[in-house]
């Protein structure tokens, strides 16, 4: 049987084909919107916990430079021709060891002349003393006047003064002679010679050679003020009990522990750091002055910290960090925190939290705004739902 469709019926069918999907979509969208809105109103599931506590040794790493405890530029104390050296460049020398010889002959002549002058004035002094003794004896017998005895006394005193002066000149001549043998003032390694034998040297000629001590040595470095204060908090002896370790370029740590022996009296206003210095016995001699080392400082005792998982925080070092806490009505509360360092994927919290605060440790992505109602579940249930969602 053949069905005839009128033009009006066809128009109605076409209209229905167009309108019905539109009505369906709008209805479905409205229903989905209601469902989503209802879902949004449902409390979001989160896992909460209190801030944790950790006890750790404070460790701080900086770059330091090895310095000689003593570094001496050897100069000539008397002028003369440098005629000999008694060392090889790079040798270790002992304090008092002869290292250079200046031609001593003219200084020996000065000593001989000064000694002769001493003998001359000594003879005159002895004679003047004898004359004074005789004069004193004759005065007692009224054989000479008192003025004659006084003249003898003056002559004796004059010759004594000349003798004393001559002895001083002899001592000076001997000192100058001793300066012709230049000796090492310290124990240490001697450097490259700067003025060779055959040259005429004076005190103004400058350094002949440098000697630097090798044991003990200093390692100097600077600490940021915040690190400095953290170490002070863990020390009972103003950092004297802090262990100092140094690391070589190859990554090996020196097996000797150093101690801090100097702390500057103020923080540099430009760098915000403070200068410190550690001393090492350096018995093996592996720490060489001028070398740069990694310096690690370890506090003498553990310090308690409040910590929160890094994954539970938002923000950054520039704008600051915050966590979501939960109040008594299970509503989200933003807590701005101040962090100082990290320990095992946890932030150390310096300020902003109390130990009894309840913070969100999992599910922070479900929190959109402060005041949002939350549903607290345990970590096991949260993990199961998270895995099921995946």
Structure overview:
The protein has helices at 7-41, 105-140, 146-179, 225-233, 379-389, and strands at residues 44-49, 52-68, 71-74, 80-85, 92-93, 98-102, 181-183, 188-190, 200-201, 209-212, 217-224, 243-247, 259-263, 273-280, 292-309, 313-316, 320-326, 332-343, 346-351, 359-362, 374-376. It has 390 residues and is an alpha+beta fold. Strands 2, 11, 12, 13, 14, 15, 16, 17, 18 and 19 form a 10-stranded antiparallel sheet that branches. Helix 2 runs antiparallel to helix 3. The longest helix has 36 residues, at 105-140. The relative contact order is 0.17.
Number of domains: 3
Q: N-to-C SSE series? A: HEEEEEEHHEEEEEHEEEEEEEEEEH
Q: What portion of the residues fall into strands of 2 or more residues?
A: 25-35%
CATH superfamily of the largest domain: RNA polymerase II/Efflux pump adaptor protein, barrel-sandwich hybrid domain
Structural class: alpha+beta
CATH architecture type of the largest domain: Beta Barrel
CATH topology-level fold name of the largest domain:
OB fold (Dihydrolipoamide Acetyltransferase, E2P)
